[in-house]
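User: Just a sanity check before I run the rest of the batch. Below are the structure tokens for the first item. I only need the designed sequence back.
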């Protein structure tokens, strides 16, 4: 008997030893997803900070919708986990082991790579946050059942559209959208033989000026139309395939076209037919009609997109071909290493550079000048961009008298139309022309207040000079963090652009700005 007892004791000791030996493997099962999630959030730390700081500014309605979507997704996720557990005859639970599925992995890595590339090229935080949310959903797709992940992908799209695109949206993509809208409307009016010129985000006609303001940018229309498409896709269970992408592209085109047509009609009614009251009345109804029509046509096209059919088999690894690099021992460490490399690259792209945009401006001695303070609206606007350097002077140069404002910055978001400053100051704009003031300066030439005053402005860097704001934005695609200066000059009398004194003055200002920019570049090189 004692021998039998000893024998059973030996078996028990052996079992204890076996249960202790697999600890490293068990630890790796939990460590791998932790390292992957840590590397992913490290790679997107700037998006996380921006999202948390801006969340308080999201309107209450948006917060309610966001909360509803998150709760709906969690409830559906729990229900899906329970149903899968019942089918597999096991208790429901969370498995830390992740599966390297093709589409979730492509979404995560693709979003990460695009985010870093955009940060290097042109940094728009809202787009970065959108990519971060989509990539995070791709990360979740490595842990949840594949059919569930695919079916609820539109919910991730809804969250990606709602979370970053709150009240700050117009400060990111809103201004370029308004500029593009103004230029498109200019072409439409030209087709109707209505002479017009767009400058920044305004349209100037021969007999009036129309401002393409925030509601006219089409941003809210695009957002609502996109949310409608994603919501309909989710509720109807449509597949996100090539047909759906075609519907999304058509939806985008219809929304943009409807907004451009609306702005063109408003400009014609208000400025050509001189009926501003009617334009004000139809402003909102036109936008609603265009949005509703675009959404209805989009819904009709969406009916031709196949519905999602859930697979009979379930589970995190149900499909035999759902996992890539299956049984490869270095697959998961390799993915973690790849995301870590993305994180390092993201941190390098966020390294702060020198914010000094321009050295002190030194005008020729024949130009007598004195500094004057910014007005209240200018202080409020430029106060939002502490790294922007402004200089405002009153000058006398021969027979020329007036004031000049220079705005130096590395960000295109710090600039706005000088025409709007004149209009806000009670100086109406009667005409805008493109003029070649000197061989190096192509400027916008303005006639103000029934030809009582004249003004000119241009954008200048150390290498380029332009009068087109879109060219300034486009320069960021190839010249990251280059210093630019907006030069805005207001003359105290009406002058023709061909005036010799005007040309000489413009040439001297151009040379002074160029010297200041080059001087700052030389100082930076010396400091290095």
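Assistant: Here's the designed sequence for the first item:
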């Amino acid at each position: 008997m004692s021998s039998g007892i000893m024998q059973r004791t030996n078996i028990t000791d052996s079992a204890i030893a076996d249960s202790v030996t697999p600890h490293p493997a068990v630890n790796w099962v939990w460590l791998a997803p932790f390292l992957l999630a840590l590397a992913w959030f490290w790679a997107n730390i700037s998006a996380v900070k921006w999202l948390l700081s801006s969340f308080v500014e999201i309107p209450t309605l948006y917060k309610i919708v966001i909360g509803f979507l998150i709760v709906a997704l969690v409830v559906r996720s729990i229900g899906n986990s329970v149903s899968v557990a019942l089918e597999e005859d096991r208790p429901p639970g969370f498995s830390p082991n992740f599966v390297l599925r093709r589409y979730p992995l492509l979404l995560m890595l693709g979003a990460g790579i695009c985010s870093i590339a955009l940060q290097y090229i042109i940094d728009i935080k809202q787009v970065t946050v959108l990519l971060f949310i989509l990539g995070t959903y791709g990360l979740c797709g490595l842990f949840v059942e594949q059919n569930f992940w695919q079916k609820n992908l539109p919910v991730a799209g809804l969250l990606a559209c709602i979370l970053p695109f709150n009240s700050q949206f117009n400060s990111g993509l809103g201004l370029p959208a308004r500029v593009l809208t103004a230029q498109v409307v200019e072409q439409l009016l030209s087709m109707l033989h209505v002479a017009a010129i767009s400058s920044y985000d305004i349209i100037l006609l021969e007999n009036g000026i129309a401002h393409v303001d925030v509601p006219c940018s089409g941003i809210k229309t695009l957002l609502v139309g996109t949310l409608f498409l994603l919501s309909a896709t989710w509720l109807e269970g449509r597949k996100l395939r090539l047909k759906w992408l075609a519907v999304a592209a058509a939806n985008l085109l219809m929304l943009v076209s409807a907004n451009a047509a609306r702005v063109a009609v408003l400009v014609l009614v208000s400025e050509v037919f001189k009926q501003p009251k009617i334009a004000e009345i139809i402003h909102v109804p036109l936008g609603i009609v265009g949005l509703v029509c675009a959404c209805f046509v989009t819904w009709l096209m969406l009916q031709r997109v196949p519905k999602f059919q859930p697979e009979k088999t379930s589970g995190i690894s149900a499909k035999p071909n759902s996992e890539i690099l299956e049984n490869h021992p270095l697959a998961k460490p390799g993915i973690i290493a790849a995301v870590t490399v993305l994180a390092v690259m993201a941190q390098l792209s966020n390294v702060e550079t020198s914010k000094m945009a321009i050295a002190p401006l030194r005008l020729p001695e024949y130009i007598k000048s004195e500094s004057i303070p910014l007005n209240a609206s200018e202080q409020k606007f430029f106060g939002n961009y502490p790294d922007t350097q402004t200089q405002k002077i009153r000058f006398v140069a021969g027979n020329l008298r007036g004031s000049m404002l220079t705005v130096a910055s590395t960000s295109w978001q710090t600039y706005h139309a000088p025409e709007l400053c004149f209009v806000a100051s009670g100086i109406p704009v009667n005409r805008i022309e493109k003029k070649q003031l000197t061989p190096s300066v192509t400027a916008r030439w303005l006639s103000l207040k029934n030809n009582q005053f004249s003004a000119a402005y241009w954008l200048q860097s150390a290498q380029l000079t332009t009068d087109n704001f879109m060219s300034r934005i486009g320069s960021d695609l190839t010249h990251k963090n280059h210093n630019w200066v907006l030069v805005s000059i207001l003359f105290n009398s009406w002058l023709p652009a061909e005036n010799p004194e005007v040309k000489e003055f413009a040439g001297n200002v151009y040379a002074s700005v160029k010297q200041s920019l080059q001087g700052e570049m030389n100082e930076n090189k010396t400091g290095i």
